Amino acid sequence: MNLIQTRTVSNQVDEILLERIRDGTYSPGSRIPSESELSEELGVSRATVRTALAKLAANGMILRKQGNGTFVNARIKEASAQFGNLWDLVQLIEGNGYKSSIQLISIERKPATEKEALVLALEPGDELIHFQRVFRADQRAVILADNAIPSTLLREPLDKVDGGLHIRDIFNNYFHQKIAFAITDIRSTLIGADALKHLGGKAERAILQLDVTFYGMNNLPIAYGVNNFDDSVLRLSLVQTWS
Amino acid sequence: MNLIQTRTVSNQVDEILLERIRDGTYSPGSRIPSESELSEELGVSRATVRTALAKLAANGMILRKQGNGTFVNARIKEASAQFGNLWDLVQLIEGNGYKSSIQLISIERKPATEKEALVLALEPGDELIHFQRVFRADQRAVILADNAIPSTLLREPLDKVDGGLHIRDIFNNYFHQKIAFAITDIRSTLIGADALKHLGGKAERAILQLDVTFYGMNNLPIAYGVNNFDDSVLRLSLVQTWS
DNA sequence: CAGTGGTCTAGACCACCTA
DNA sequence: AGGTGGTCTAGACCACTGC
To answer: What is the pLDDT of residues B135-159, one digit of tens each?
Structure first.
């Protein structure tokens, strides 16, 4: 478990600034106080303020202009995700303005296909645990997710697993593994029979497919996920900023 | 123009470390010297070393473990792009192991469609300059890109424009505008007639479409691009790391 | 010219991991 | 216990912008 995450000072500064942007104290497009002013007002060093501002800038919330000031990005609401939290599907759905929910379809033990074995560095036939889930936006099914994890990694009884959690928390809680990084392929495909069954809509249409391989701290693959993403309902939009 | 970019100390540290990773001084999966050691060896403060390491970690090149050390990511070659440079199509092609080239198809003045006018905050019919280009991977056409920029922003004669540049440099050089940020929609669509003509392959297939809106420092849209991306040839794969 | 953000330093303390 | 990365401070200088 151990997700205590002591709130750092810069994280608190971050939250204060975000709150002020949200409640309109700092209105869209306006200039916010300078680093020195914030540093003095909040009683922290300028370096700490900069750490917080850097995070907001990386997420596109603010725009910084050397010699001029720091400004609230007035367009941020048009994006549904920032770089860095792209695979938080719940946040993605809510970023589109919907209420999200997760429906567990099935948890199954299945032998690995050739492709899965290749990706996960296993032998074909080794047992995998598949979590098949549907993500809903205001009740409407928009994402069909299938995550496969080698059985040998399981550390808790399978029937105790809460299938409604973020994949990262499923790992933390039941597999006692930390995800260090992930590599994701973004593909375009014609909708398959299984996805059509769960997502509905008209056949022969194109959908997004996000193939995610999760790696542990030791550089070894620990999970493989296939997410069928109905982009006719849900926008996958990203903000990118430059330094 | 003005792209002088004085190389900062931390950028130089960054390059030194990248070079050592590339030439095998720091081999894949191995631990690199600690922050203090690097700080002492290179004669810079630990904070500067940390700035450089943070950048490498954000790109997934290294993995950091508190209380243990910093390690070279052994899997980084499996990704074709990092978060933050996703829209550098040339780098994307080369990340897939191909030689890239850009072919200018046409530069045309055209009235804005309703959709373009909406996105760019113009009136329908206002004149746009369209740059239609094909990106090739080892001679094979893989991306059809169409970027539209309002004529009123042009600051140089149109016939002087080098259509082979990155869109960011086209902006810098001929429009004297800096791009502050971009919002991109990733969609999946059936290939259209125009894209099929330039990219070839079989009809009725699904391709990726990246719709990019570029914004200037003043939060106003300055360009709109549609990139048809043949993901049957080119993989769009990203590394994501967690802090 | 004054003020802003961008970079850098030297030193301190803490949380965490391995042994 | 010792070393690692994570956080924070106080102060300095620089590059850039706008007036």
So the answer is: 999 999 999 999 999 999 888 888 8
Contacts of B241 in chain A (CB under 8 A): 180-181
pLDDT at A213 over 60: yes
Of B73, B184, B205, the CB nearest to A240: B184
Residue-wise pLDDT tens digits, A60-83: 899 999 999 999 998 887 777 666
The answer to whether residues B214 and B179 touch, using CB atoms and an 8 Å cutoff, is: yes
B95: enclosing H helix or E strand = helix B89-95
| Domains of chain A with CATH codes | 9-78 (1.10.10.10), 81-239 (3.40.1410.10)
The Cα A74–Cα A20 span in angstroms is: 14
For the segment A122-146, what is each residue's pLDDT rounded down to a tens digit?
999 999 999 999 999 999 999 999 9
Are the beta carbons of B12 and B20 closer than 8 angstroms? no
Q: For residue B171, name the pLDDT band (cuts at 50, 70, 90).
A: confident
Q: Is the CB of B64 under 7 A from strand D?
A: yes
Closest residue of chain B to A185, computed from CA coordinates:
B237
Q: Which residues of chain A make contact with B183, given a CB cutoff of 8 A? A: 75, 78-79, 237-240
Report d(CA A183, CA B137) in Å as an integer. 22
CA of A47 to C1' of D9 (A): 8
Residue A217 identity (one-letter amino acid):
M
How high is the pLDDT of residue A2? 33
**Average pLDDT for residues B184-204, to the nearest whole number?**
94
